[in-house]
Design a protein that fits this description.
Layout (H helix, E strand, L loop, with lengths): L13 E2 L13 H10 L4 E4 L8 H10 L3 E12 L2 E8 L6 H27 L5 H9 L6 H10 L6 H9 L12 E2 H10 L3 E4 L9 H13 L4 E6 L4 H13 L3 E5 L30
Parallel strand pairs: 1-2, 2-3, 3-5, 6-7, 7-8
Antiparallel strand pairs: 3-4, 4-6
Helix pairs in contact: 1-2, 4-5, 5-6
The structure holds adenosine monophosphate and manganese (II) ion (3 copies).
Adenosine monophosphate binds next to helix 5 and helix 6.
Length: 285
């Protein structure tokens, strides 16, 4: 290729982690794709929590707006009694094993939402169940819906406060949940032709030795990637995630974890560049 020609592959702007109304995002898949385009994203994966319901609409919208669409999901898993989010990228969203697997999580989410609402009611916060079901518009209900409701009703003054006081682990409205078995979830993703990626690895508040055990297990179970750059990563966090990627020979992913335009700290495509000296996850697609 003559040097004056632009190599579009080299200038691809990836965002491989975001949410739509199919889970706890506030935009429809179409609105999300249009916003991604406006923000300069050229390759987008929609990764809703435990559902593929937004995939078809997003794929059509991406086709209409010349965006390279990568089907994805963010699966809630449990390993050694701890919750880990595993992003599946470049999956076949129709794959039977995957669809069967996430069905259980969808039932679990419904039951858990009722239990959280019941606990909130006991803390004098009524009406949460009806409100979150309405807000989710048929999508997966997550704790983000509860924190939004509590903020809107002035029970808390920030969403973070809702987690700190009620929804976080060990707090009064926390419902311990056994999500998908980690190894099984990795298997669903692999069976569906995808790449399993550890989501936001620095957010689990684990000691270094726990993290080492977790990553060894993840790798041995068939996991292939780890998020190195997320929407709020600073240089030090990128450096730390890079060390994990290299130590465990995992490909590096990049994704904003965008949920809503209301959060001015996280935007589609607003991401630090992936360091050059690492295998990017899209080389595995
Ligand atoms: P769940 O999967 O139902 O436990 O809910 C987790 C979701 O809640 C995450 O995907 C975020 O969207 C949101 N979330 C988690 N922690 C916080 C926090 N501290 N502040 C605001 N939102 C949060
Ligand atoms: Mn979320
Ligand atoms: Mn997550
Ligand atoms: Mn996410």
């Amino acid at each position: 290729m003559p040097s004056f020609m632009v190599n579009t592959k080299m200038t691809e702007q990836y965002d491989l982690h975001c949410h739509s109304l199919a889970s706890d995002g506030s935009l429809t898949p179409t609105e999300l794709v249009i916003r991604a385009k406006e923000m300069g994203v050229t390759a987008l994966a929609l990764t809703d929590h435990d559902t593929i319901n937004g995939q078809q609409e997003a794929r059509v919208a991406a086709g209409n707006h010349a965006i390279n669409f990568i089907p994805g999901i963010e699966i809630s898993t449990t390993w050694e009694n701890k919750c880990f989010h595993i992003v599946g990228l470049n999956i076949d969203p129709e794959h039977k094993g995957l669809c069967q697997g996430i069905k259980g999580l969808q039932t679990l989410r419904k039951e858990r939402a009722k239990k959280i609402a019941f606990k909130l009611e006991k803390k004098s916060i009524p009406g949460a169940y009806e409100a979150v079901i309405k807000a989710a518009k048929g999508g997966m209900v997550t704790r983000a819906h509860f924190s939004s409701y509590m903020l809107a009703q002035n029970y808390v003054s920030t969403q973070q406060e809702a987690f700190d006081r009620y929804l976080g682990q060990g707090k009064s409205a926390f419902v311990a949940t056994v999500w998908a078995d980690l190894a099984e979830a990795i298997d669903w993703i692999n069976q569906a032709g995808g790449v399993a990626v550890v989501a936001h690895p620095l957010r689990y508040k684990m000691t270094a030795s726990w993290m080492r055990r977790f990553l060894s297990f993840f790798k041995a179970a068939g996991g292939q990637g780890i998020e190195v750059v997320t929407g709020r990563s600073n240089a030090d966090e990128i450096r730390r995630a890079m060390i994990y990627a290299k130590q465990y020979d995992l490909a590096a992913s990049i994704g904003s974890d965008f949920h809503t335009p209301d959060n001015k700290w996280v935007e589609l495509g607003r991401l630090a560049p992936l360091p050059a000296n690492i295998t990017p996850v899209w080389e595995l697609f």
